[in-house]
Design a protein that fits this description.
With 460 residues, the chain is of the alpha/beta class. 50% of the residues lie in helices and 15% in strands. Helix 12 (341-349) links the parallel strand 10 and strand 11. The chain binds NADPH dihydro-nicotinamide-adenine-dinucleotide phosphate and (2Z)-2-iminopentanedioic acid.
């Protein structure tokens, strides 16, 4: 073995040992937080070749600093339902890393929300936000509140109570929340109203995803779904392929899913299935998106009701079933761990070419491994779904400059950002010996910028 190889081998071993030790710390300090462990593990596994080549990061103990949130807030959210019963939920905000800019990330209202869910999302957000090239740090928040079946008045009282506490910790230059599962334009509107009233000032840049009449950006609603499709378009282009005439399956039927379907259809794909938490619909001729939009954006109805308008379509109950529908492109756009190893095997045996993660961490670690081993084009969440937060940063820029860009202007910038994330991730994968592995590439590219900024700002 040459001296160079020996040194390299040495570095790899020392680096692996360092990573294992920091991962032990994560497990010890955050017991029972399975989702957080999973998100950390995915990133750590990718960083071995990079950290081995650049000992400066180990010397500065960047990993151990990064896995500890700068601040983790939990708070009670008391509210009253329409019958006069007093309820209380738990609210969270993790302000994970501010090396690149103000904390930035969405709020999730869902009964499954826990410290582990918020921390996994906040941790992912650090690297995703870095990939966008925009000056934003990583944060996330939410509550274990279930918006399903609540009246509009109940939603308003809950979100106002949530913001009464959150307002003490956020601001256009400190921490800028937005939407996520269960939080859309309506909730952002109520929260913005409450923040404004408490502050006595109209600080437009404190929240993104606002309505267009009071500081929102055109194309923010569409950004995550469109951005995901732009990213997958780049993956396909490198293989001489396009969306034209491809059969596509998109899980979920919320904000990300709807606009991923819209853009895929615009590019000539046939989207045959989508879902919600109760099951999935299959429409061989292609999903009629106007029906889905009306059911989900206007009426908060179940996806099964699609069949009332399209009786020739089919509805199947259950969570994972959607991945049994044969397709060439799969876009998981619902929630974490919705696509496991078994589903990955089925997708492959049905001939899937590309998978793009619109949701955050939708594939289990085992599923990702199956896709990579079988040569499926795989776009990881923190790269694929970064278009939403990227346009949030463009909304912040417009708010600071008191500007309103046109839909086309924002959409063009989004396209460029998604192309750039693809290129940067591909280049990083090639440079560190994992050519074409976008999981490794996106993790290294996202990590490098944050780590360099942390080192430049000293031990603080
Ligand atoms: P929405 O609330 O608009 O939609 C969520 C969709 O996923 C619904 O169809 C919902 O079904 C389904 N879903 C939610 N939880 C579950 C579950 N436990 N099991 C099965 N289905 C579920 O959220 P978004 O579209 O905004 O978010 C979807 C994903 O995309 C999330 O992972 C989010 O973190 C991620 N994301 C969102 C961004 C954004 O800008 N909004 C940006 C980047 C990522 P049901 O209505 O039945 O609950
Ligand atoms: O996961 C995400 O990137 C989001 N939910 C969007 C965050 C944002 O600040 O727009």
């Amino acid at each position: 073995m040459s001296t160079l190889q020996a040194v390299k081998q040495d570095e790899l071993e020392v680096t692996q040992q360092y990573i294992d030790e920091v991962f032990e710390t994560v497990m010890r300090r955050n017991p029972h937080e399975q989702e957080f462990h999973q998100a950390v593990k995915e990133i750590f596994d990718s960083l071995v070749p990079f950290l081995a080549k650049h000992p400066v990061y180990r010397k500065n103990n960047v990993l151990e600093r990064m896995i500890e949130p700068e601040r983790m807030l939990t708070f009670s959210v008391p509210w009253m339902d329409d019958e006069g019963n007093v309820k209380v939920n738990r609210g969270y905000r993790v302000q994970f890393n501010s090396a690149l800019g103000p904390y930035k990330g969405g709020l999730r209202f869902h009964p499954s929300v826990s410290a582990s869910i918020i921390k996994f999302l906040g941790f992912e957000q650090i690297f995703k936000n870095s990939l966008t090239g925009q000056p934003i740090g990583g944060g996330k928040g939410g509550a274990d509140f279930d918006p399903k079946g609540k009246s509009d008045a109940e939603i308003m009282r809950f979100t106002q109570s949530f913001m009464t506490e959150l307002s003490k910790h956020i601001g256009p230059d400190t921490d800028v929340p937005a939407g996520d599962i269960g939080v859309g334009a309506r909730e952002i509107g109520y929260m913005f109203g409450q923040y404004k009233k408490l502050r006595g000032a109209n600080e437009a840049g404190v929240l993104t995803g606002k309505g267009l009449d009071y500081g929102g950006s055109l194309a923010r609603k569409e950004a995550t779904g469109y951005g995901a499709v732009y990213f997958v378009e780049e993956m396909l282009k490198d293989q001489g392929l396009t969306f034209e005439d491809k059969t596509v399956v998109v899980s979920g039927s919320g904000n990300v899913s709807i606009y991923a379907m819209e853009k895929a259809q615009e590019l000539g794909a046939i989207v045959v299935a989508c879902s919600d938490s109760s099951g999935y619909i299959y429409d061989e001729k292609g999903i009629d998106l106007e029906i889905v939009k009306s059911l989900k954006e206007e009426q908060s109805k179940r996806i099964s009701e699609y069949l009332n308008e399209r009786p020739e379509a089919e509805f199947y109950e259950g969570g994972h079933g959607i991945w049994t529908v044969p397709c060439e492109i799969a876009l998981p756009c619902a929630t974490q761990n919705e696509l496991d190893e078994t589903s990955a095997d089925v997708l492959i045996s049905n001939g899937v070419i590309a998978v793009g993660e619109g949701a955050n961490m939708p594939s289990t670690l085992e599923a990702i491994e199956v896709f990579l081993k079988n040569g499926v084009l795989f776009g990881p969440a923190k790269a694929v779904n970064a278009g939403g937060v990227a346009v949030s940063a463009l909304e912040m820029a417009q708010n600071s400059g008191r500007l309103s860009w046109s839909f086309e202007e924002v959409d063009d910038k989004l396209k460029e950002i998604m192309k750039d994330i693809y290129k940067t991730s591909m280049e990083a994968s090639e440079k560190y010996g994992y050519s074409g592995n976008l999981v490794v590439g996106a993790n290294i590219a996202g990590f490098k910028k944050v780590a360099d900024a942390m080192i430049a700002q000293g031990v603080i």
